[in-house]
UniProtKB/TrEMBL annotation:
Homodimer. Its EC number is 5.3.1.1. Pfam families: TIM (PF00121). It comes from the Bacteria. One of its GO terms (cellular component) is cytosol. InterPro entries: Aldolase_TIM, TIM_sf, Triosephosphate_isomerase, Triosephosphate_isomerase_AS. This is Triosephosphate isomerase. Keywords: Cytoplasm, Gluconeogenesis, Glycolysis, Isomerase. It is an enzyme of class 5 (isomerase). It catalyses: D-glyceraldehyde 3-phosphate = dihydroxyacetone phosphate; L-erythrulose 1-phosphate = D-erythrulose 4-phosphate.
Length: 240
């Protein structure tokens, strides 16, 4: 596993063209070995890429599982790649819940992302506090694309922690990440399984970020609400 840390902003259905002006500040806040990625809504992706901020990777928040076709309102992984993004979030709990996305669909979306040359950032996490880490590992196994996919990132996001201000103990995060690492090694083999970054997400802020990223197998953070606040997100990047 690489020693590098990854800090990903998920703007959800928020943000603006104006907020893109913060990208250079986010890049400047990153210490050595820290990579920052920003996932704005679709209309801002190409604008974010065109800013050309060194040190910022741009991503999307979802893609369709099909390469193209009659899917009004949907966006393919290939078009996201053409806009200049390099990764795409798939299986976020809000899409699993609000759009009834299953593990099988998430796996197909992840496969579509890989086929388009994007890194799929696959989100998994338990609904209720205290569930067995094995449940989350099983969700990951069912959400992985087949074959030997390149560029995968995994995010452990307990649903109960997202946007709630409540977080699991860092030791709990470490034990879930260990279960996810074992699942990745079983599915992808030792070298590829160890190379996949596993992020923690759910009410991350500047005060708690470092406590998570100090843990074994916590390779960074996925940040929702706090990534919309320039100072707060800058402080998280600096803390990691
Ligand atoms: C998220 O939804 O991906 C997330 C991590 O949200 P928040 O940081 O607001 O809990």
């Amino acid at each position: 596993m690489s020693m590098n840390k990854l800090v990903v902003a998920n703007w959800k259905m928020n943000g603006s063209r104006e907020l893109l002006s913060a990208l250079p500040r986010f890049a400047a806040a990153a210490g050595p070995g820290v990579q920052v990625a920003v996932c704005p809504p679709f209309p801002l992706i190409a604008l974010a890429v065109d800013r050309g901020v060194a040190g910022i990777v741009v991503g999307a928040q979802d893609c369709h599982a099909a390469p193209c076709g009659a899917h009004t309102g949907a966006v393919s992984a290939a078009l996201i790649a053409e806009a200049g993004a390099r990764l795409v979030i798939v299986g976020h709990s809000e899409r699993r819940r609000q759009c009834n996305e299953s593990d099988a669909l998430v796996a197909r979306k992840a496969a579509a992302a890989v086929a388009a040359g994007l890194g799929p950032l696959i989100c998994v996490g338990e609904e209720d506090e205290g569930e067995d880490p094995g449940t989350v590992a099983a969700q990951l196994r069912a959400s992985l694309p087949g074959g030997a996919p390149a560029g995968i990132v995994v995010a452990y996001e307990p649903v109960w922690a997202i946007g709630s201000g409540r977080t699991p103990a860092p030791s709990r995060v470490a034990s879930v990440h260990a279960a996810l690492r074992a699942a990745l090694i079983a599915a992808l083999g030792d070298v590829a399984g160890r190379a996949v970054p596993i992020l923690y997400g759910g009410s991350v802020d500047a005060a708690n970020a470092a406590a998570f990223t100090r843990e074994q197998d916590v390779d960074g953070v996925l940040v929702g609400g706090a990534s919309l606040d320039r100072e707060a997100f800058q402080a998280i990047i600096a803390a990691v």
